[in-house]
Structures are given as C-alpha cells and as structure tokens.
C-alpha cells in the first residue's frame, strides 16, 4: 500500500516534501530529483526554495530530470516545460542549470530523444525522489490511460481532456501541442521514492483510482501501487473519495517520527 497523508493544504504538503528533499540533499549532495510540472507542485517548489535559503543548503551539485515536455514548441516558448522548470525550479532553488535535464521536444531529433533521456537518467544513477502530480484522466507525467506500465521515455499523443486542461496556459486551445515526450511509467517506477501530490475535488476520483483501484494501464496513477516507497500527499478534497481514509489517518498519526515520509 502506498502511504497516504492528508494535509490541510498545498503549503503543508510543501513543508513535508521540502523536509524530505532537504534531508536527502544533506545525505547526498548530488541527489537526483524527478521534477513534475503543472500547478500542483508549485507550492512545494516554493517551500523548498525557502528551506534552501533559510538553512543555507548547498544545492550546486543537485541534479534533476523533468518528467515530460511538449513536442514542437519553439525553443524558449514560455509554456515549454523547459521554460517552466527553469522559471519555477532551477532559478528559485538556485540549482545548476546544466545539471537539470528536460526531455528534448524538438521534432527534428525527437525520434531518439526518448532513448537519449533514458540513457542520461541511467548515467546519473537513477532518480532519488520523484515528485508527481496527477491529471484528471489519471495520467502521471503525460502517460495517458492505456500507457504500458512498463513504458519508457517516448512520444505520446495527448488526449482531448488533457489538451483542454492545459489550454489555460496558451492563447488558444489549438495552440496546445498534440504530442509530448514523457518519461514512461516504467521509468517513473525506477525512481527510489515517489511522492504523488494532489489537491482539490477535481483530483478525488483520480486519487481514489490510483490508491485503491485495480492496478491497470487504464489508470496510469495506479502504477504507484507497484512501487515499494510511494508517498501520496493530498488535501481533504482530493482525499474525499477514498474508502480507507480512516486507516490512512490512523497509520500516519501513529507513524514513528524518525521514518519521515
Ligand atoms: C500535466 C503534466 C503532469 C501533471 C498534470 C496535472 O499535463 N504533464 O505532469 O501532473 O498534468 O496538472 P496540474 O498539476 O496542473 O493539475
């Protein structure tokens, strides 16, 4: 079972995750972070930036791999995930830009970009802590329903609901790219610790399916049940469709403090 933690809000989640990442970096100054985009992890990145500043944590050796990228956006497009990761993570945290990779969505080279990315993650020794959001459709990264649970980084076609959800970041819905390149579910499962975040009622169904539903490619988030160290952190609204909520609270309330998340 994944550990499920209910927190008051995204700021409380951010404080928990920041703690875990800071202790990881203290143990391993060249830790490898798996970075999600989307609105969900933003409060966590802010909490982490504050902790790094307050505690004067040296993050110059920290490495990072983003989960995904759109295919075909012009270089430097503000909504490319490269730009988002630079703006929301690399700069505020003070990471070394060359140590943070994002899949390459250039159509000219995209055919081998997946294999290149896998090789880079392997060469880095794998991801230590992977931050994940979840889409309404249950997707993690951009692994839409039906994605193989063993999949590796490759090009995918976005679903209509995901393109509609992401249209808010673009001038018009047609501007949302049709394709993306995303770490596969198999790639994500190789990370040593998965931290799945979700806030708000709109995520309640996807969280219930991920945590308590059958493990199925139809609900990519359910793959977290295959991982030996998954922490799911949600607010009350995102937890509202979980059947075993009372037990998750009981387990968390009685967890030895030394275990962290
Ligand atoms: C996006 C990203 C995912 C993200 C999800 C949820 O499309 N590719 O990595 O987890 O959709 O986004 P949000 O956090 O904005 O709800």
General description of the model:
By secondary structure, the protein is an alpha/beta fold. The protein has a single domain, classed as Rossmann fold, CATH 3.40.50.1360. It is built from 8 helices and 10 strands. The strands form 2 sheets. The chain has a 7-stranded parallel beta sheet, sandwiched between helices. Helix 1 packs across helix 2 and helix 2 packs parallel to helix 3. The longest helix has 18 residues. The protein is globular and about 55 Å long. The two termini are 14 Å apart. The model has no long low-confidence stretch (mean pLDDT 97). The protein binds 2-amino-2-deoxy-6-O-phosphono-alpha-D-glucopyranose (GLP). The site of 2-amino-2-deoxy-6-O-phosphono-alpha-D-glucopyranose (GLP) has 14 residues, from helix 5.
What keywords describe this structure?
261 residues; alpha/beta; Rossmann fold; seven-stranded parallel sheet; three-stranded antiparallel sheet; 8 helices; 15% strand; binds 2-amino-2-deoxy-6-O-phosphono-alpha-D-glucopyranose; hydrolase; Glucosamine-6-phosphate deaminase; NagB/RpiA_transferase-like; carbohydrate metabolism
């Amino acid at each position: 079972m994944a550990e499920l933690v209910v927190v008051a809000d995204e700021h409380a989640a951010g404080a928990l995750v920041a703690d875990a990442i800071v202790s990881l970096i203290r143990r391993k100054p060249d830790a490898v972070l798996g970075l999600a985009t989307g609105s969900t992890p933003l409060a966590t990145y802010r909490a982490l930036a504050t902790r790094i500043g307050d505690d004067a944590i040296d993050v110059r050796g920290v490495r990072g791999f983003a989960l995904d990228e759109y295919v075909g956006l012009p270089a430097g497009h503000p909504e490319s995930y490269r730009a988002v990761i630079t703006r929301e993570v690399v700069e505020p945290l003070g990471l070394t830009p060359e140590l943070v990779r994002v899949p390459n969505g250039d159509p000219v080279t995209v055919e081998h970009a997946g294999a290149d990315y896998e090789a880079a993650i392997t060469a880095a020794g794998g991801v230590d802590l992977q931050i994940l959001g979840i889409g309404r459709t249950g997707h993690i990264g951009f692994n839409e329903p039906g994605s193989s649970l063993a999949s590796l980084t490759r090009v995918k076609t976005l679903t209509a609901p995901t393109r509609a959800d992401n249209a808010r970041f673009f001038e018009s819905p047609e501007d949302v790219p049709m394709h993306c390149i995303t770490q596969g579910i198999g790639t994500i499962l190789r990370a040593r610790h998965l931290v799945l975040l979700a806030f708000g009622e709109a995520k309640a169904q996807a969280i219930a399916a991920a945590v308590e539903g059958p493990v199925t490619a139809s609900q990519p988030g359910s793959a977290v049940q295959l991982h030996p160290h998954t922490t799911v952190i949600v607010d009350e609204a995102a937890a509202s469709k979980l059947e075993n909520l009372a037990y998750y609270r009981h387990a968390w309330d009685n967890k030895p403090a030394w275990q962290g998340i």
